[in-house]
Amino acid sequence: MKRNPLVLVVACVLINKNCRILFAQRPKSKSMAGLWELPGGKIKLHEKPEETLIRELYEELGLVIRTKWITPFVFTSYAYDTFHLLMPLYVCRKFEGTPKPKEGQVLRWLSSDEFANYPMPAADLPLLPFLCKLLA
Amino acid sequence: MKRNPLVLVVACVLINKNCRILFAQRPKSKSMAGLWELPGGKIKLHEKPEETLIRELYEELGLVIRTKWITPFVFTSYAYDTFHLLMPLYVCRKFEGTPKPKEGQVLRWLSSDEFANYPMPAADLPLLPFLCKLLA
């Protein structure tokens, strides 16, 4: 039986005052290029999930968030061909700054009517009904 | 800055036909003895979260569950003194067998009126409102 590594990624539903969620399009240099995803990244050794999210949102978007502004929401668990993804998803409605694409990604704030039309990684698809409920 | 290890545990909200959730009291031989918790356990190297849950529910309770019977629900992230716990929580309403305490634990099916009175590990407390919603 093939034993793929477990990859631990945290991501964030960033919601703005207009009830839109921030999505980023993966740049050409990365795997799954062109697909739209929620911001976040891999948990490094000895990092807490909240620390990862604070670090990634600053590195990717220039945003400052704090642990007390994020809440556990749901998670996804998905078997890709070469790894198994486990991705806890936080919700964040408060942040400092305006998101800037610091890694060449394209950013877009999307409503629940809109994000259904954006191609996303397979692991993220089961999350969409949860996102719709959050905005309802 | 103290760098505690991240410990990855999966747990399960097992719900029976009477809308009660299964809790197990940690035996005296374990840390946090006497506290009541949801069944589950540590993810082993190269194990998928679903595989861990299937293995643990069989080892601890003699229950057979299948991947298609479990759904991602919520997660908890909590800084204990010596480790940081990240615990994805699944929901399972279908299982084969009757739970048996195979590791000396005490088992109890509890309603949302009841489980509020049972002492639980600190990391589990933020999950209780989610459990109440699930039974409502």
Return the string of H and E elements of chain A: EEEEHEEEHH
Largest interface, with Cβ-Cβ < 8 Å? A-B, 22 and 22 residues
In terms of quaternary structure, the protein is homodimer
- Classify the secondary structure makeup of chain A into a structural class: alpha+beta
State the separation between the terminal residues of chain A, measured CA to CA. Answer: 43 Å
Describe the largest sheet of chain A: 4 strands, mixed
Task: Output mean pLDDT of chain A.
Answer: 95
By DSSP (H or I, 4+ residues per run), the number of helices of chain A equals: 3
* SS strand fraction of chain A: 25-35%
Tell me the Rg of chain A in angstroms: 14 Å
Helix content of chain A: 10-25%
Give the strand order, joined by hyphens, for the main sheet of chain A.
4-1-6-5
Note poorly predicted spans of chain A.
none
Shape of chain A: globular
Strand tally of chain A is 7
Folded structure, characterized:
Two copies of one chain form a homodimer. Chain A is of the alpha+beta class and 136 residues long. The first copy, chain A, is 18% helix and 32% strand. The first copy, chain A, has helices at residues 49-61, 112-115, 128-135; strands at 6-14, 21-25, 36-37, 40-42, 70-79, 84-92, 106-110. A four-stranded mixed sheet of chain A has the order 4-1-6-5, with helices on one face. A three-stranded antiparallel sheet of chain A has the order 3-2-7. In chain A, β5 (70-79) and β6 form a beta hairpin. The longest helix of chain A has 13 residues, at 49-61. Chain A is globular, with a radius of gyration of 14 Å. The first copy, chain A, starts with 5 loop residues before the first strand and ends with a helix. The mean pLDDT of chain A is 95. The A-B interface holds A 3-6, 8, 43, 46-50, 72-77, 79, 84, 86, 88, 126 and B 3-6, 8, 43, 46-50, 72-77, 79, 84, 86, 88, 126.
